[in-house]
Amino acid sequence: MKSIRKIRIRKVKKDDWKYFKIWWKHPALDDLSGDTNPKHSTDKWLFGSFMRMINDSKRLDYIVLNEKGIIIGHFNLILYKNYVQFDIKIGEEKYRNKGYGTLMTKKAIQIVFKKLKYKKLVLDVKVTNLRAIRVYEKCGFKIIRKTKDGKLYRMVIIT
Ligand SMILES: CC(C)(COP(=O)(O)OP(=O)(O)OC[C@H]1O[C@@H](n2cnc3c(N)ncnc32)[C@H](O)[C@@H]1OP(=O)(O)O)[C@@H](O)C(=O)NCCC(=O)NCCS
Domain 7-158, what fold? Predict the structure, then answer.
């Protein structure tokens, strides 16, 4: 029998550093930053980034738990004047491709349009990240352009 996927979210707190420390130390191939500076993978540097992230009033960062209460990843929303930018990562590889990313994206969309009352949600994704693109298209995002270097798509939902 196919198991029923469910997610629960809560805001990221300082204690969650232990998860981010692992997820950020093993950046996925789909990481958009392209940052290869070795200094930027030290615990000290990463912890500084983590603290800036959780103290940034323009961001909403969520930890995601599955139906068993296991922490599987996170997503964030960066709030601009007229739009919100979305990013997502299932940090634990074994939980990818099981439907959670779709549920997380739908949850983010609900927060942005129903709760925060924004009218535009955007994201950037590597053109090679076919799984992520599939998830975003399933959830209603449309590709609007490619970056000049051809590496990223900008995707958007406007209500
Ligand atoms: C991208 C990510 C959030 C997607 O979440 P997920 O839980 O793995 O995805 P889901 O299981 O909900 O859905 C995957 C969909 O892509 C499809 N898919 C999987 N691999 C694919 C591929 N290589 N090409 C096309 N589609 C693919 C699946 O069949 C499924 O579609 P379906 O429901 O129509 O069958 C997750 O894999 C992840 O965190 N990856 C690493 C970080 C990342 O890439 N973040 C995105 C940055 S923009």
Answer: Aminopeptidase (3.40.630)
Residue 158 CB–ligand 1 contact under 6 Å = no
- Beta strand extents in 3-70 (DSSP E only): 7-11, 59-66
Residue pair 13/20 in contact (Cβ under 8 Å)? The answer is no
- Tell which one of 23, 31, 135 to mutate to probe ligand 1, the residue whose CB is within 8 A of the most ligand atoms: 135
Give the integer Cα–Cα distance in Å for 45 and 144. 34
Determine whether the shortest distance from the Cβ of 130 to ligand 1 is under 6 A.
Answer: yes
- pLDDT digits over 69-113, tens only? 999 999 999 999 999 999 999 998 899 999 999 999 999 999 999
Residue 74 Cβ inside 6 Å of ligand 1? The answer reads: no
Give pLDDT tens digits for 144-159.
999 999 999 999 999 9
Q: pTM of the predicted model, to two decimals? A: 0.95
